[in-house]
Amino acid sequence: MTLPHSPGSAGEPQNPETVEVHKLEHFQEEEQKEERQHSLHMGSSVQRRTFRTSEEDYQFSAADYSLAAALALTATSEMSWEAQLRRQSSTAELEERGQKRVGFDNEWEKTEIAFLRTRRLLRQRRDWKALRQRREEKIREAKELRELCSGRGPWFWIPLRSHAVWEHTTVLLTCTVKASPPPQVTWYKDDTRLDPRLFPAGKYRIKNNYGLLTLEIRRCTAEDSATYTVVVKNAYGQASSFAKVLVRTYLGKDAGFDSEIYKRSLFGSRVEFTSVLKPVFAREKEPFYLSCLFSDDVLDAEQNIQWFRDGRLLRSSERRQLLMAHRQATVKVSCAYKEDEGLYMVQVASAFGVREQSTYVFVRDAAAEKAGAPGSPLNVRCLNVNRDCLILTWAPPSDTRGSPITGYSIEQCQGESEEWVSCHEAPGGTCRCPVQGLIEGKSYRFRVRAINRAGSSLPSKASESVIMGEAEEAQRKTEISFGFGSKVTISKDDFEESVIIPSAPTNVHASEIREAYVVLSWEEPSPRGKATLTYSLEKSVIGSGTWEAISTETPVKSPQFALLNLEKGKSYVFRVRAMNQYGMSDPSEPSEPITLGKKAATLPPPAQVQALRDTQTSISLTWSPVNGGPELLGYYIYCREVGSSEWQTVNNKPIQDHKFSVPGLKTGKEYEFCVSSVSQAGVGKRSAATESIRVKQALAIPSAPYDFILLNCGKNDMVIGWKPPKHRGGGKILGYFLDQHDPEEPDWHPVNQQPVPAQVCKISNLQEGHFYEFRARATNWAGVGELSAPSSLFECKEWTMPQPGPPYNVRVSEVRATSLMLQWEPPLYTGAGPVTGFHISYQEEGTEQWKPVTPNPISDTHLRVSDLESGKSYVFQVQAVNSAGLGQPSMPTDPVLLEDKPDAQKISVGVDDEGFIYLAFEAPEAPDFSEFQWSKDYKGPPDPQRVKIEDSVDKSKVILKEPDIQDLGTYSVVVTDADEDISASHILTEEELDKLKKLSHEIRNPVIKLISGWNVEVLEQGEVRLWLQVEKLSPAAELHLIFNEKEIFSSPNRKITFDREKGLVEVIIQVLSEEDKGSYTAQLQDGKAKNQITLALVDDDFDKLLRKADAKRRDWKRKQGPYFEEFLQWKVTEDCQVLLTCKVTNTKKETCFQWFFQKSALPAGQYDEQTGAGLLLIKEMSKENKGLYRAVVSDSRGEDDTILELSGEALDAVFTELGRISALSAAPLKIQGTEEGIRIFSKVKYYNVDYMKTTWFHKEKRLESGDRMRTGTTLDEIWLHILDPKDSDKGKYSLEIAAGKEVRQLSVDLSGQAFDDALAEHQRLKAAAIIEKNRAKVVRGLPDVATIMEDKTLCLTCVISGDPAPEILWLKNDQPVTFLDRYHMEVRGTEVTITIDKVKSEDSGRYGVFVKNKYGSETGQVTISVFKHGEEPTELKKM
Is 0.70 surpassed by the pTM of this model? Predict the structure, then answer.
């Protein structure tokens, strides 16, 4: 640790005699201080009051004994001269006291003196032995303590010093360090450890001669320029010291002891602020930060940069970080509380004094958990901390959110547990409350919530942690310093007896009286003993004569107790008893009568609240302070914008001063302010509102002009130019006063008696060849400003050079992120010829290189510089050019920072109410008495013949008198006498001017705005409604309705209405006819505004409207009886059936419904009387169903019908839909073996060849019907027949069904087992077919029954088949027939004939022919009936 030292004697050794004198003076001051604070009287602890004169006996307390023992400890075996000095001073004091007793001049005085001397000797003899034992014990303890303290960490008695040396010289760095034991020493160069072994021999030499540390650097080079640090360390600590070494190479003004680097190393850098701290508006529980920039690095920034809040030094903590970076210092607060609000100030020490900046940080209330809940309290503090109780205080919130505070909830937390428990409720009229029942030795934190009708606020910031009883314990101990850094701590308990019953407490009194409680205090008994004390309290109502013990939940351990349950209006007296483990004391003396106090009233509002202008965004407030004593916590400020009824809180932490600057206001707006006093009783009433005040810069004297330049010079005269003040003082610069000075003369002389209005002045009557310097002051309405620094010396010598002089008044405006406008005045001295152009160059701030803006000179005196880099600062200068070349450069501009200002105003272009085109510019931040300077194309003011300029407060307007193409161009405006650039420009183009002229024409010739033009509607009963709508009109608006060039009015057939409120014009024609054909024109006029809207009802438009109106009328009449709500329509069901539907409404029981097709009734049609639905189902739709379908409904009220014609496109649509649904309903493809081959087919619900197309594919190849592949369809099936299938027929088969736009694809795989199964089935069926084909069969010929008359010849013939030819056998009644006599059989090819000649009745029976071959057999049978002559056959009888 490095001890602080004086800068002036940091490196000089001190004389030992001087050190001893300092020590002697130090000890004498300490002794005198102790003698002033204590009166030390050694004596016995036993008091004997046997004799008392006018002067009472001396009483010795425990503190006296402790001090005596401490002084005894400090005595050594050898009597030092310090001890002798103390003894002599004590003797002198005793003698002085004895002299004071001289003056009684009687026997009693002599007797008293003798008695006192005798008693003192007796006491000294009696107590000397006990004190000697105690002294020896304390000396032994002090020796042990001194041995422990003998080791200490290192510290620098003389630190390192910086050096600036020439190259190739030797530098010696020395310092002196003290430490015990001797420390370890390490040297560093720019944070790198310095090891001489790593460098050339003899380069570095390091020595340590009994605490004198040296570092020798030989033959220094530029690489040796660095920061050298020595670090010393032992077991008790560590310290460091550093110094900078600067090695200079070049000689001259910029090197050596004249160099800036050397001055910085010797005195420190000249640090300036390059940014301005701005007010911060943070929110509770959210982070915020403050940051400032410096012009140079700050040496040892952590020590030289300090932050303050409300005058208190800030240090880093858990919530707050103090950061130092390159040329930047920052305060970061991670979680803001209202306690963080205040005036923040940053200070930095530099070679030329302390630089400082300040700003205010506001912390607004966080959003409440419940709407309307108040803000949180703040400044929670713990006072009068005892063993088991304390007093908690806080400040009320500034914002109650419209509802007064009814109470406070107090929460406590033990240690750092963050477990908050509600412990007490305080009434709303106080911000102070006792907290009892705490545990001794425990640490506590507290926080408070404010409560109103809406709910509870967020908790306040927690108080600082307090340990119960720690303060009382510290008061009972006394520290005595002796020697060098040694201390002895003595406690009053050291002089208390171990076993003792305490005496009664004393001085019972009310230390605090409030409306809700009384704090009772008393002094501890003396003697009290070493045992722990508790107290018992008793109370008595005045006049009762009885004492009542006060019950407490926990024992009272502190000499203080808060009484909370006293009755108002009654007077009490109290007494206290002390108790320990050995017994209870007698009661104390009763206190004075105590009564609860009255309700604390809030403090009155401050008077004489005045608002004064301050800056562009702030207002300064002052008020008369309120005499509130310690109760006054500060003031809350409220503000509101004029016109608003709601007051806004300015500060959330009470202000202690009686003046304040309110920042963050809107420039140019008017505000009102009021102030409230804050006390522990709450926030008082608000003061009367101040008069409204506009936020503007306060008027002040201007700063000094600067940057003087010589513009022209003759033999005896000069023309001088300069830059205006950076701060104009919030007012117009009226002029400048100039002084001149000849270095050969001692005095300055004024140049002008009246202020010069321009920044150029011609000084005459000068002496040629003399040098002159100048200075100036600016003046405004506030007075004459600061005096500028003298200019450079200018020689009065006539200019004859051919090049032109410097341009002047170079000014920058319209600064944006990447561009700016540069303007200047041409030089006064043109040289050998006229100026032909100007050369503009720029320089980035911090560099020395000038770069041209344009490759060639320009002829204008203005230039818009673009394509610059945002966020950088630039400097510009201008040089005039003539035939001789470049002239002298102008004075460079001040650095210009390129950035977009969020509040930068722009020129607005528009048309006013009178129809005039204008360009307006508003600048709320413009100072009073400033002017708006308009320019066109940067060549001067606009032509007054073409424009008119109107100025008002903070606003200026250019009005174009007769807008024309001559008015096109760039219009720019600059606000004069403003500290910051307030300027803008606008390019008025031909396109924009045309739009503005059109708008101007509309305003000067207003047109009633049309919302909706003529609309034509046909109403339900066939009426025709014509209507239009315009904007809302005044009651005086007029309407003229013109029909075919003739004004019409309302009539029974034409009803005309005009609603001015809605802007609605309506014409209703009851029955439209040919007479209503023509044009309708509505002529509207409302004041100056007019409009005319025309509707033409002619030709086809009128005919269509007429037909529609007639149809509507008929339809309305139709609906008077039963009518079709839904007309006939068709739909196809999922079963591919066509369903015709319609719906009837307004029916009765007798209503009749009929279906017709082609004028024929259809009894199959259905009708549901309940729902009114009519249904007609066509199960199989075909072209036979083509025709006209009609449904008719009728009753006594009338008749209605609906017609549906299914033909042409309508019929095609039905069939297409049938095909679509059929295609969607197609079943998956199936495989079937047949006798011809393999058949693949799909079942469908409907198929129509004309509207459905099918295509078969085999392995993606389209199949055509041929010899082996046959395709076909039926009404319910689509098939593909493969004849004589082969292996090549295996594969995937697909069927594509197309119905209109709907396409359905089906596929099946004919391979593997599916092919084998189908082929086997085919072969089986084929074999069966062969058998069936060749089998013996009776094909035809035999009838079932045959009748014949007797004696006739019966001939039965049949056709047989079979291969091979079958065997033939005839049977009669299942018995073979024998062909003899009358029976004959004849076989001719496939015909077989049996003949029976002359049939008889016995020939009747059942005959059959039986054929048989190897493939099978078959029998054909016939029944023969023979009847006699004259009989009727049996079959005829049955008929």
Answer: no
